[in-house]
C-alpha cells in the first residue's frame, strides 16, 4: 500500500436522475461522449489520469494542483461547447471539486482512497452546476499561477469531517471566445441593500409545515447564493422532505432583485405555478408562491 500527496478532481453530473428518467438512452450516450471527447483528453492534457467513473461521477488524480485546476477549467470550457449541440433539457452541467491531500493507492489497480478523496467529493457538492469549487489548500497553491480568480465561498461543516472546510469558487476574469458561453463566467459588485427580510412558509401535501427567513442584505455577502435542499451539510436553507433534492434550488440576487434557479432537481421548482427551468433564474418577491418538490411555500415580507 502506497501513500502520496495528490491533487484530486471529483465531478458529478447535476440532475442526472431527472435526465435519466426523461431520456435514459440519450442521456447515457451523451454522458459517454462527454467522458470520451471532453474529460479524458482534458485530463491527459493537464498531466493527470482518470482514476475511474461510477455512473455520472468521475475521479481524476494529478501530481500538481495547478494542473488539476487548469484541467478542471479546460473541462468546463469544453463542456460549454459540448452543450451547445444539445437540447436545453439535456445539457450536461458537472459540478467539479478539487482538493490537495494525501491519498492511499491500491498498487494492483491504481485506484485511490482516503480522506483526500472523500473531501474532494464533499467540496464538489458545493460547486455550482457547470462550476468548480476548490479547497483553501488548492487556492493557496494556484491563485498566482492561473488567470482565474477565486471567490470566497466561506467555511462549511461537511458530513463526517470534524473541522469546517473553507472553499473557493473558480471564476473566469477574461471575456469568453466569440460564440462560446463559459459557465464559469461571473461578475461581482459591492452594493448596499435595504434591510429586507422575506419569510418563506408553507407545507407539503400531508400538512407538514416548513419555514425559513432570507435577509436580502445578508444574501449580497454570499456570492454563490443560498442553496435550498434537503441536505443539511450541503445547503444553507434546509427542507427535509423526500421530494426535495439534496441540492434543489439556489437563491441569488440580480441587482436588488431576488431570484431563484433550479439546480437540476428531480421533482422540479415552480414560481406561481410556472416551472423554473434548470439554471434559468426566475424573479421572486413578496406575494410569490414557490413550489420546491411537493412543498408549497408562500413568500411575505417580515
* CATH homology-level superfamily of the largest domain: Nucleotide cyclase, GGDEF domain
What's the number of helices? Answer: 6
Number of domains: 2
Give Rg in angstroms.
19 Å
In round numbers, the mean pLDDT is 85
Per DSSP, what share of the residues sits in E-state strands of 2 or more residues? 35-45%
Distance between the termini: 58 Å
Structural class: alpha+beta
Low-confidence stretches: 174-183, 185-193
Counting DSSP E segments of at least 2 residues, the number of strands comes to 19
Overall, the morphology is globular
User: Architecture of the largest domain in CATH?
Assistant: 2-Layer Sandwich
> What composes the largest sheet?
8 strands, mixed
The first-level CATH class of the largest domain is given as Alpha Beta
Query: Any idea of the CATH topology of the largest domain?
Result: Alpha-Beta Plaits
Put the structure in a nutshell:
The chain has 302 residues and is α+β, with helices and mostly antiparallel strands.
What attributes characterize this protein structure?
302 residues; alpha+beta; Alpha-Beta Plaits; Tumour Suppressor Smad4; 2 domains; 8-stranded mixed sheet; 6-stranded antiparallel sheet; 19 strands
Describe the structure.
The protein has 302 residues and is α+β, with helices and mostly antiparallel strands. The chain is built from 6 helices and 19 strands. The strands form 3 sheets. Strands 1, 2, 3, 4, 5, 6, 7 and 8 form an 8-stranded mixed β-sheet that branches. Helix 1 (16-22) crosses helix 2 (24-45) and helix 2 (24-45) packs antiparallel against helix 3 (65-83). The termini are far apart.
